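pinning this so it doesn't scroll away 📌
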Amino acid sequence: MATTEFDISQLRSPLRERTVIALATALTRIAGTWRAMRNRRAVATLLDWDSHMLKDIGLTPGDVRSAMSGPLAEDPSYRLSVLSIERRAGIRAAARDRLALARGTKIVPIQAVRRDRVRCLEI
C-alpha cells in the first residue's frame, strides 16, 4: 500500500503570497502618492518666495510654476532638484569658459576630458 502526503498549507501559500504582494504594492503606491502630495504642498510654499530668495537656491519663479504644472501624483521636488542641478552646471561651464578665454587656452568640452582620462587609465 502506498501513502501520499498532502499538505493543505501548500494550496493556500500561493494565494497568501499573491495577497501579500498585492497589499505591499498598494501600500507602496499609497505611500508614494502621499509623499508626492506632501512635497507638492512644500513646493507650493516656494511660490510665495521672491525671485532673490529663489535665486539663492538656484531656482526661478518659472521653475517652481513649471514643476507644479505636472500631474498631481508626480513629485515636483524631483523636477526642481533637476532644474537646479542643470542651472548650476550651466553656470559652472560658463565660468570655466570665461576663465579659459581669459587665460587664452583652448576650450575643451568636459566629456572629451573625461573620455581622455578614461583612455589614459585603460592603457
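📌 and the second one:
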Amino acid sequence: MKQLLLLLPRLVRMIAQLLKDGEVPTRAKLVLAAVALYLASPVDLLPDFIPVLGYLDDLLLAAVVVDGLVTYLDRGLLLKYWPGSAESLDKVAAVARRLAMWVPARVKTRIFGGRAEAA
C-alpha cells in the first residue's frame, strides 16, 4: 500500500502521458482523464486532512486504475510510460490487484473497454 501511495504523483504524470498516446483506446482515455481530474482535485470523498483515512480514497482509486491498466492495456505501451522498471510495475500491480479485488472483473472490463488491440 505504501508503494501505491508514494506512486500517486508519478501515476498522475503517467496518466497524462497515456492520454496523449494514440494507441490507448478512447474509453481508457476517458477513464484516465476522470481519474486525473479526481486525483488533482482538492475535493475528495474523504478529505486529505483526516489522518490516514484522508488518502484512502486516492489509494483505492490508484489501485483500481493500476490494476485496470495492467489488465487491459498492452504491457509494452504501459512500460513505455511507467515511472520505473518492469519489476517495479509487477510489484505495484500485485499490490493493486489485492486492493482492487472488490471490483468485479466485468466492471473493469466495462470501464476500460477490454484489452487494447496490438498495434
